[in-house]
Amino acid sequence: MKNLSGSSVRLAQLPPLSLYVHIPWCVRKCPYCDFNSHEAKGDVPEEIYVEALVHDLEQELPAVWGRRVTSIFFGGGTPSLFSARAIDALLSAFRARLALAPECEITLEANPGTFEAEKFRDFRSAGVNRLSVGIQSFDARHLKALGRIHDDAEARRAVEIALAHFDNVNLDLMYALPGQTQVEAEADVRTATTYGTTHLSFYHLTIEPNTLFHRNPPRVPDEDSAAAMQDMVEAQLAAAGYVHYETSAYAKPGRECRHNLNYWRFGDYLGIGAGAHSKLSFPDRIVRQMRAKQPVEYLKRVGASMPVQEEHEVARTDAVFEFMMNALRLTEGFPVASFTERTGLPITAATRGLDEAESRGLILRDHARVRPTELGRRFLNDLLQIFLEEEKQR
Ligand SMILES: C[S@@+](CC[C@H](N)C(=O)[O-])C[C@H]1O[C@@H](n2cnc3c(N)ncnc32)[C@H](O)[C@@H]1O
Ligand code: SF4
């Protein structure tokens, strides 16, 4: 076995670069959510935070000097809590400091609710060209059980307003909700498809540690029912013309989310804002960064010109698993050449794992491409476990 424990890699070329901007506040914390989101008690410190984000970016500019940014993603939390003026100021600051690709995809996550939907037009004017609306369900009872602040009418209205101003719209929905029946899940899928948005994300609701649902678990559909819902989602969306291109993501042909595709293809991203993560490649190393999760702590650190709380080089031994964890989520898998291009390692570094995955029917491969089989996609955790075990043995 080749010795992979050395720390340095050699990357012939750097991957595409995306920018992620984290907005860490929400009106209320949802009981199932483990994202870095904090209940906004009173007004959010919008101006201070915008200034901090720009300062954060400026600190990091030397690390991305001369590189083109192919996508920007405002994620949360609830970015639509911010005014369009704040988003406009941020985008102007980014344009002045970074080389944005001419077709740069600029996504903003928005929550339904009259107050926020009214701003959609102004987000578009500010330069956002893709809106991702957190619908979760179109069913009033389920929205209530999920602790959402919007109801079914507001969900529908938000989609209508989004479509009036954006031609590239994603809807986030979840299934296997507390007490959800197959018929109810089907109704949600049907409603979602009637709008014809370019993109739909359907997530299996998971009960995450450190959430209210974990402390006080609701009754959710059992594994078999959830699997039947997943099959139904796939069949209905295929019939409606959506391509299932990633575990939870479905797009009209050619309208995949470029920002997320870059993550899954093990591209680079600079993440600014509270709790944001970055992965940045250099000719001789790959680096991961994390910023402080608590907004107050983050602002303090930016004030001291030290936005990055933790930084480490990705060890060669970790790079195989990290690459697979992303690339095998994609239906198309990955071109063999991209493994070396992105990790700086020869494909032989992954051979043992790939051999085992192939013998268990979890992947298909030839000299040019590796892709997960239907079985591999369904049992993605088992597939990834193979590479995790491999990593431990190195
Ligand atoms: C960053 S989150 C939040 C975006 C936005 N604040 C919202 O709630 O609509 C993106 C999506 O992750 C999904 N999500 C959050 N927690 C989840 C969980 N425990 N299980 C499955 N999906 C989850 C939701 O569909 C959510 O819209
Ligand atoms: S699901 Fe969205 S709105 Fe709810 S707490 Fe998480 S980030 Fe905030």
Overall morphology: globular
Cross-sheet strand order for the largest sheet: 9-10-8-7-6-5-4-1-11
If helices are DSSP runs of H or I spanning 4 or more residues, what is the number of helices?
Answer: 16
Beta-sheet strand percentage?
15-25%
Proportion of residues in helical segments: 40-55%
Ligand names: S-adenosylmethionine, iron/sulfur cluster
Unreliably modeled segments = 1-6
List keywords for this structure.
alpha/beta; 394 residues; 3-stranded antiparallel β-sheet; 9-stranded mixed β-sheet; single chain; 16 helices; disordered N terminus; binds S-adenosylmethionine; binds iron/sulfur cluster
What does this structure look like?
The longest helix is centred in the middle third of the chain and has 17 residues, at 223-239. The strands form four sheets. Strands 9-10-8-7-6-5-4-1-11 form a nine-stranded mixed sheet, with helices on both faces. Strands 12-13-14 form a three-stranded antiparallel sheet. It has a three-stranded antiparallel sheet with strand order 15-17-16. The chain has helices at residues 46-60, 84-97, 114-117, 120-126, 140-145, 152-165, 182-194, 212-215, 223-239, 258-264, 295-303, 316-327, 336-343, 351-359, 374-378, 380-393, and strands spanning 17-23, 25-26, 38-39, 68-76, 99-110, 130-136, 169-175, 199-204, 243-246, 249-251, 268-272, 277-282, 285-291, 308-313, 334-335, 363-365, 369-372. It has 394 residues and is of the alpha/beta class. Mean pLDDT is 95; it is low at 1-6. It binds S-adenosylmethionine and iron/sulfur cluster (SF4). S-adenosylmethionine is lined by residues 32-33, 35, 75-76, 78, 109, 111, 134, 136, 172, 174, 203, 205-206, 208. Residues 26, 29-30, 33, 35, 37, 76-78, 111, 134 line the site of iron/sulfur cluster (SF4).
